[in-house]
Design a protein that fits this description.
single chain; Dehydroquinate synthase-like, alpha domain; two-stranded antiparallel sheet; six-stranded parallel sheet; Rossmann fold; alpha/beta
């Protein structure tokens, strides 16, 4: 049986490890960028998670302004505000610090800083629309610094922004369509597990389940290239093993494993596909923005798994195995149902 064709393109510089976020000054200085717009939320500022980043930038003589208006399930209005401040302050790159919401607003502002029209003009609803290359100009350089172990947005080519008028979450995204082509994503990602140390248990659980769901949906996707399979299996195992400890005790060893799992799942998102779990959760978040994304994901996952088992029982049996379930001596269908229970 043929493995099928795939294209791998990953033009992002990644540094992973405790304290890596404080390397930002020297890395940015190497690029000759001059002034940053830091995109974040007030809670991140209050927790002091931006302090080391600001110190590192200042040490290299790099100026910065800050947009702190990000809220969960980010909106077109937030992207417009960030873009306006960027232009007013004369910033030539963006640093997004936070969870998926801050990173998505940063992506939106980087896109609109160099491309015409409105953010809704870049909505994509199918792979065919992505191939049409709606993003013609390279977005402004973006540095991502995640503070949750969940979305993987720091290394993917996608963003989700709520159109307030339609109460609808738009998907924006584009991978490089040719070598060196424009894409929606970071040039540099600093993945620092230490920044998740103060994440409260409920957010740890919600974002951690989101990371698991990325690996799950990528693993069972019909668009999954063979490259992704061992990675998604590994992530499902990591999250199953380490999320309970990260939630219950907040221990750094578990948080580091969770950040790595989330990060690898984010890479997989660029090459596989999502399904009904994310479609339902994004629709829900567009209508009810007060519902955390990861909690909506968790609510829909068992039902969607049961529905899909009939089509690909073997892949869901692999999910059970990855989660550490003993599936010896049982059929794929039985193993798949045990994955739902797990």
């Amino acid at each position: 049986m043929s493995l099928g064709d795939y294209t791998l393109t990953f033009p992002i510089w990644v540094e992973f490890g405790n304290g890596s976020s404080e390397n930002i000054g020297s890395i940015v200085e190497s690029q000759s960028w001059e002034k940053a717009l830091i995109v974040t939320d007030q809670g991140i500022l209050d927790a002091g998670l931006v302090d080391g980043i600001e110190t590192s930038l200042a040490a290299e003589g790099i100026e910065y302004a800050t947009y702190d208006g990000v809220e969960p399930n980010p909106t077109v209005g937030m992207v417009n505000e960030a873009t306006e401040l960027l232009e007013k302050e004369g910033c030539d790159f963006i640093v997004s610090v936070g969870g998926g919401s801050s990173i998505d607003v940063g992506k939106g502002a980087s896109l609109m800083a160099t491309n015409p029209g409105e953010i809704a003009d870049y909505e994509v609803t199918s792979a065919e629309e992505v191939l049409e290359e709606p993003i013609e100009n390279h977005p402004l350089p973006l540095v991502t610094v995640p503070t949750t172990a969940g979305t993987g947005s720091e290394v993917d080519y996608w963003a989700v922004i709520t159109d307030e008028e339609r109460e609808f979450k738009m998907a924006l995204g584009q991978s490089p369509q040719y070598p060196g082509g424009p894409y929606l994503g970071a040039e540099i990602s600093l993945v620092d597990p230490a920044l998740t140390e103060t994440l409260p248990p409920r957010q740890t659980a919600a974002t951690g389940f989101d990371a698991f769901s990325h690996a799950l949906e990528n693993h069972v996707s019909s668009a999954r290239p063979p490259l992704v399979e061992p990675l998604t299996k590994h992530v499902m195992g990591l999250v199953s093993e380490h999320l309970p400890a990260a939630y219950e005790d907040g221990e750094m060893a578990a948080r580091e494993q969770m950040m790595f799992g989330s990060h690898v799942a984010g890479i997989c998102e660029n090459f596989a596909g999502f399904g009904a779990i994310h479609s339902l959760a994004e629709t829900t978040g567009g209508m009810y923005p007060e519902i955390p994304h990861g909690e909506a994901i968790a609510a829909y996952t068992p039902a969607v798994m049961r529905y899909n088992i009939e089509a690909v029982p073997g892949r869901y049996a692999e999910v059970a195995e990855a989660m550490g379930v003993d599936v010896s001596g049982v059929s794929d269908e039985e193993a798949a149902r045990e994955a739902v229970d797990a």
